[in-house]
What does this fold into?
Amino acid sequence: MRMTTEFADYAAPPVIEVAYGVQFTPLKNWKIPHFGAFWQLVREEFPQCEHAPVIGDLSIIDENSGLPLPRVWLVNDSDDRLIQLQLGRFLSNWRYREGSGPYPRYHILSEEFFGHFETFRRFLDESDLGELEVKNFDLTYFNHIYGRDGWQLPEAFGEVMKPVIWLDESHEFLPRPRILNWQAEFAFAEQPGRLTVKLNPAKRNQDGEPLLLLEMSAQGRPETDAIGNMKDWFAAAHEWIVRGFADLTTERAQKELWRKHE
It folds into this structure.
């Protein structure tokens, strides 16, 4: 498949969160004080610190002491950007917050992520914490899709997603389903990796408004984790997400819900 840099563009894209991630072999010498030591390097940009449940295996422990290690969030003043640190994981997120502005676009978020990750790598080197052995990269876009002007969600999922169409005339007994969970996986054509797409019904926290949660996540890694290869992989992952979104959603939804630019 030939890739291109010409993507569909939307005036009101449904993306509400973007997460860049690196999974690596846990560092044997990493201790709890290292969370704070790294925080000092980025504290001017991320002055808030929070604890969060660990991602993946809940039994993440320090091999030397057998004690559990946390996941730490470093959060900016606007609450729309954070760095996540966990034994074996580094993540950089943008998330929508009321009043913090629209989705800032890929080129801005990617440069922020690469800058923060290089700071993390330098910290590991200067602290003699060992060589970083990358196991996996991931890029995930979370989209909230709401009904508008007669679109009744989640029942109208067929009006949003091309592969999920319910033909009323072909079902004599069953009504249109109220809940639908859909998932698909696609292998990358030119880079090592895959794109996983999940569609699930959900409700908005503040008012319970029904919505569809469309999660598009790319995972994989190049042969080396040199910064140039990293940038190429994330660029390909972004393209698969954006072009995949355009392939999977209907033209009507793109125009009426997200105001696709012609």
Observations:
- Strands lie at 15-24, 48-52, 71-75, 81-86, 89-95, 134-145, 182-187, 194-203, 210-220.
- Residues 49 and 162 are 41 Å apart (CA to CA).
- The longest strand covers residues 134-145.
